[in-house]
């Protein structure tokens, strides 16, 4: 449903957005929904009756200011992540598709006349010193991990996986009852239709150190063998050829098709020397570290927004001289995050 504020005050849009997203408003919206047990909807006629208490100007401006700053900072972080994701994928394409990884002199290998050798198994030329092989030579699939049933751990559902990009949505906490298990630096791929076709794939990076998280049984988990190959795994899983292979290997009835882990594990590909894989991980580490830091900051800012705005609107804290007073601890410091200068990244 599209809601447009027609009083000419653009700040009212932000206030209404903030109001509709606080827990008390969400509960109220749930109560006024109508329909059967299978189809429940929120009708415009009911939304028109929703009471909204408008605060005085000081509180109104404070709510809008906080909401806008946090929202803008989250949008900046997301934009930076998109740029970094594009840079990582471009570098992957240069190194492992066009074979223009840096040679011994730091020049692009193939473009600088590096020797190419026809590989019979792959039916194509690959750089000298590379081999044909299978993905399972580089990655474990669904590595064995253990969580005691009933223990509360971080949970990632299918909706948390992006169709573009590498970062998951914020984690949930949930008692373990089953599902695929993973740790930081693992990569998860959705294996069921339409999620696989849509490209749902993500790097696990928001868990605590050594923590084991879990998610849908419809995930396939990749982990580097001997090396941490998170950057390579992310880019490989989003590469056109690998995705086409994965989709072509789906089996099952219409609407419930899945791909088996073995089908991905047996994907044929050029296998680079260990040194080149390590160099790629080192070259892209700063991209993925920054993406993870931005995603963690977004989660923290979202939690701060969801905690602070309801208290402001409900009168649990007061506003004076554009500062929030009350028992708020480090709120001022946390809000300082949104004032950081934008980071600029050049092209690869």
What does this protein structure show overall?
It is a single chain. This protein is α+β, with helices and mostly antiparallel strands and 348 residues long. It has three domains: 1-54, no CATH class; 56-115 and 276-348; 134-271, DNA methylase specificity domains (Adenine-n6-DNA-methyltransferase TaqI, Chain A, domain 2, Alpha-Beta Complex). Helices cover 39% and strands 16% of the residues. It contains ten helices and 16 strands. It has helices spanning 10-20, 23-31, 44-47, 57-97, 195-198, 230-237, 240-248, 261-265, 274-313, 331-335; strands at residues 34-35, 40-41, 116-119, 124-127, 131-134, 139-141, 152-156, 172-175, 180-182, 187-190, 201-203, 213-215, 219-224, 268-271, 319-320, 323-324. It has a four-stranded antiparallel beta sheet. Strands 8-7-12-9 form a four-stranded mixed beta sheet, with no helix packed on it. A two-stranded antiparallel sheet has the order 1-2. The chain is elongated, with a radius of gyration of 24 Å. It starts with 9 loop residues before the first helix and ends in a 13-residue tail after the last helix. Residues 324-330 and 341-348 have low confidence and may be disordered.
In short:
This protein is α+β, with helices and mostly antiparallel strands. The chain is 39% helix and 16% strand.
């Amino acid at each position: 449903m599209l809601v447009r504020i027609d009083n000419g005050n653009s700040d009212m849009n932000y206030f209404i957005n903030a109001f509709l997203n606080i827990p008390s408003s969400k509960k109220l919206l749930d109560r006024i929904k109508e329909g059967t047990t299978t189809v429940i909807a929120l009708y415009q006629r009911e939304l028109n009756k929703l009471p909204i208490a408008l605060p005085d100007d000081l509180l109104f401006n404070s709510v809008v200011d906080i909401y806008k700053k946090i929202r803008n900072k989250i949008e900046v972080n997301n934009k930076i992540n998109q740029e970094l994701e594009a840079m990582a994928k471009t570098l992957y394409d240069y190194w492992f598709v066009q074979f223009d990884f840096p040679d011994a002199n730091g020049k692009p290998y193939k473009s600088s006349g590096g020797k190419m050798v026809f590989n019979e198994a792959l039916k194509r030329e690959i750089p000298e010193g590379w081999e044909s092989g299978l993905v399972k030579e580089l990655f474990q699939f669904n590595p064995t991990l253990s969580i005691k049933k009933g223990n509360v751990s971080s949970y990632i559902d299918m909706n948390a996986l992006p169709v573009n990009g590498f970062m998951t949505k914020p984690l949930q906490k949930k008692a373990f009852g089953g599902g695929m298990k993973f740790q930081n630096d693992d990569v998860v791929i959705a294996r069921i239709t339409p999620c696989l076709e849509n490209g749902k794939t993500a790097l696990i990076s928001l868990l605590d150190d050594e923590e084991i998280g879990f998610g849908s049984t419809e995930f396939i988990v990749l982990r580097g063998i001997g090396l941490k190959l998170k950057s390579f795994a992310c880019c490989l899983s989003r590469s056109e050829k690998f995705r086409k292979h994965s989709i072509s290997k789906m089996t099952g009835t219409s609407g419930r098709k899945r791909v088996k882990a073995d089908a991905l594990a047996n994907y044929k590909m050029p296998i680079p020397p260990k040194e080149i894989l390590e160099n790629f991980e080192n070259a892209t580490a700063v991209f993925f570290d920054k993406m993870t830091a931005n995603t963690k900051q977004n989660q923290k800012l979202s939690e701060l927004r969801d905690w602070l705005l309801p208290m402001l609107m409900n009168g649990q804290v007061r506003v004076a001289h554009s500062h929030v007073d009350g028992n708020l601890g480090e709120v001022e410091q946390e809000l300082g995050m949104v004032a950081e200068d934008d980071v600029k990244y050049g092209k690869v």
